[in-house]
Amino acid sequence: MKKVYIGVIAALSIILLFGCSSKEKEMKEDVNLGFDQAKKVEVSSVTHPDVVLNTIDKQQDINTFINKLKVDKWNAAEIPADAKKENVYKMYQEGTVKLGESSNKGKKDLKQVATVTTYKGVPYIDVEIKNLNLKLKVPNDVSEYLSSQSQQKH
Predict the structure, then answer these.
(1) Cα-based distances in Å from 104 to 40, 53, 58
(2) Element of type H or E holding 134
(3) Cα angle vertex 143, ends 138, 148, to 5°?
(4) How far is CA 38 from CA 12, 30, 48, 64, 70, in A?
(5) Nearest alpha-carbon partner for 128 in 79, 88, 99
(6) CA 22, CA 40: separation in Å to the nearest integer?
(7) What digits encode the pLDDT tens for the residues 103-147?
(8) pTM of the prediction?
(9) What is the Cα Rg of the chain in Å?
């Protein structure tokens, strides 16, 4: 009888262990800040914010852009005091249809929902969503990818 109890406890422990680890994985995957809903991304220089250097608006290109950001690898961090802002990425989504409004399926009304500011030569970014401002450290390859996007013209 004692072996049965030990077996049941071991089985429950394994189930809980795998259940918790899959939950943690799901939570990591959910940390995308809603970027996967983006319909357009505009890249501007901090020095000339009104001049759009690059526009990413094809769904396949947006998906590639979002995947290359590796959001699950971002960490909260203080940005070095001597860091200089480089580029601004404005992300747009389709507006939410509110109760009582028509859906306007043919009309694409895009609203800016997030701003990502990069820094020259250092792997840090500012992310602003609504009234939330996050200062984050990103992997070096993500920083390099973001810098390269300002030089491509679509």
Answers:
(1) 18, 30, 20
(2) strand 132-137
(3) 160
(4) 41, 15, 23, 12, 15
(5) 88
(6) 32
(7) 555 556 888 889 999 999 999 999 998 888 999 999 999 999 998
(8) 0.71
(9) 21
Strand partners, 55: 42
- Residue 112 phi, psi (nearest 5): -70, 125
> Which is nearest to 114 in space by CA: 93, 135, 137, 142?
93
For the sheet with 132-137, list strands across it: 52-56, 40-45, 85-94, 110-119, 124-129, 132-137, 75-76
Q: What is the pLDDT of residues 64-107, one digit of tens each?
A: 998 999 988 999 999 999 999 999 999 998 876 666 666 555 55
146 and 125 Cβ atoms separated by less than 8 Å: yes
User: In this structure, are residues 117 and 87 in contact, taking their beta carbons and an 8 Å threshold?
Assistant: yes
DSSP annotation of 123 reads S
Q: Which tokens hold the place of 146?
A: 């973001």
d(CA 127, CA 62): 17
